[in-house]
């Protein structure tokens, strides 16, 4: 979708939401939910992790590294609007960063980009960061293993 259509859709959804719901979700949360730019998987990623929470929400991150920078990053979740928005924002923030730079992304950073989340969903930002960091650690642990060079 182009930006004008996306913005029209965001505003249409926002207008359809009840007054209470409009106060909960920023335009950025709605954008990330309706049109996540980083949702998906990567075949044979350089780094991968999947974290399942006690509540049943699951999130996965996979990414590729080229010239010491994250060249592609994708996430998947079975979670709600907040989990999708947080996962997408975390992936967008990691894109183009070094592994070290991505490692210091925080839940607060994600909340700031999103304009906040409802109180009961703040854990979605932490779940995103936890999963991203596990994927980054997976990359660091295995990056020098010979079977990784068969690409």
Any chance you could write out the topology, listing elements then pairs?
Elements: H1 3-16, H2 19-24, H3 27-34, E1 47-52, E2 58-66, E3 69-77, H4 81-94, H5 99-103, H6 107-114, H7 123-142
Antiparallel strand pairs: 1-2, 2-3
Helix pairs in contact: 1-3, 3-4, 4-6, 4-7, 6-7
Number of helices: 7
Mean pLDDT: 90
The SSE string, one letter per element, is HHHEEEHHHH
Helix percent band: 40-55%
Broad CATH class: Alpha Beta
Largest sheet: 3 strands, antiparallel
Number of strands: 3
* CATH topology title: Sufe protein. Chain: A
Which spans have pLDDT < 50 for at least 5 consecutive residues? none
Strand order of the largest sheet: 1-2-3
Task: Note down, in words, how this protein is organized.
There is one protein chain. The longest helix has 20 residues. It contains seven helices and three strands. With 151 residues, the chain is α+β, with helices and mostly antiparallel strands. Helix 4 packs across helix 7 and helix 6 crosses helix 7.
Which short descriptors sum up this protein?
151 residues, alpha+beta, 7 helices, Sufe protein. Chain: A, elongated, 50% helix, three-stranded antiparallel beta sheet
